[in-house]
Structure formats: structure tokens, C-alpha cells
Write a structure and sequence with these properties.
The protein is α+β, with helices and mostly antiparallel strands. It has one domain (about 1-75): Alpha-Beta Plaits (2-Layer Sandwich). The chain has helices at about 15-25, 55-60, and strands spanning about 1-10, 30-35, 40-45, 65-75. The radius of gyration is 12 Å and the shape is globular.
Amino acid sequence: MQTIFIMIKCQLGKAYQVADALVQSVEQVSEVHSTSGQYDLLVKCYLSSDQDIGHFVNEHIQTLGGIQDTFTIIAFKAFT
């Protein structure tokens, strides 16, 4: 299992629509948070170990309407 975080910059006025679309249509999305600053949303995703991160982001995230830019962070270990 791979954990990635995707920071998303939305088109103006589209953040809530993008957040709803992520939660409803992308199975690998675990959490979506609204944020302040350069990006509008922070998305936590769990991918299978053999799933290509680049293809996932390009095909399942960036193709959703209302997204202007993304920045992907690959997580290595979760500390509890």
C-alpha cells in the first residue's frame, strides 16, 4: 500500500465541486481537506503497491473538471 498526498489548486469558485467529485468518484481517495495558501485542497490517497502514481494522478485526478494545478507528495512512513 502506498500513501500519497495531492495538493490541488482549483479554478476560482470550484473548490467545493472538485472536493465533492474527488470523494464521490475516486475510490482511492481517503480524505479531502480544504486549505489556505497556494493550494485549495489537500487529498490523501491510498494506492495499491503496484499502482503507478504518475498514471493515477494524470488519469484519475487531473482529468476532473475545475482543477488547475496539482502537487503530489509521496509518503514513506506513518508515525503513530
